[in-house]
Amino acid sequence: MRIFVIDSDPSFQGATVNVTVLPYEPYWDETVEGNTTRYSGVNYNLLATLCQALNFTFRRIPTREWDEVAHLVEIRKSFMTTVIYGVLPERLQRWDFTFIFEHAGLYFAMPTPVIRPSWLSFYYPLGGYVWLAILVSTLAVCIALIQVMVNEDMEKVKNAMCTEQMQ
After folding, report:
1. What is the pLDDT of residues 16-51, one digit of tens each?
2. Cis (ω within 30 of 0) for the bond into 125?
3. Using omega within 30 degrees of 0 as the cis cutoff, is the peptide bond preceding 26 cis?
4. I want to staple 20 with a disulfide (CB 3.0 to 4.6 A). Which of 45, 50, 53, 81 is the partner?
5. Contact indicator for 43, 85 with CB cutoff of 8 Å
6. How far apart are CA 50 and CA 100, in angstroms?
7. Which CATH number is correct for 15-92, 3.90.1170.50, 3.40.190.10, 3.40.30.10, 2.170.120.20?
8. What are residue 20's phi and psi, to 5 degrees?
9. Confidence of residue 105 (pLDDT cuts 50, 70, 90)
10. Among candidates 100, 65, 106, which has minimal Cα distance to 84?
């Protein structure tokens, strides 16, 4: 049986909490000045506000990718992470999302197309090996059709010769 005691003054009592972050602007930015690292950004501001309200300091655990961030929180090496992370039903089974402060949509970007001469607009979308395969298959089909036509002509000649010999 577990007994839960609810403290009327929520506080971490000055503890240091491990936090994983990914340094992506404008969410998290790091500036190193000598031996001091200064943090800024939206996620840092949220974390700093939590630190002040709940009386704790944080230790940033360096990470390189999203999977590492999630793994460190799941194994409890990190207590929390302040990242923009889409709320999906699968993630709700594993994560506790405290507050959705930014609703991000799905977008994609691509470079502006370079204007090519009109005769290249047909050639450009396909690579060299694709064009080589098209050429080889076209030649193979042409050779096969010519062979069929020659065989039909030879068959007609043979039939004509057989008919003449019988008469």
Report:
1. 989 988 777 777 888 888 888 888 888 888 888 888
2. no
3. yes
4. 81
5. no
6. 15
7. 3.40.190.10
8. -100, 135
9. low
10. 100
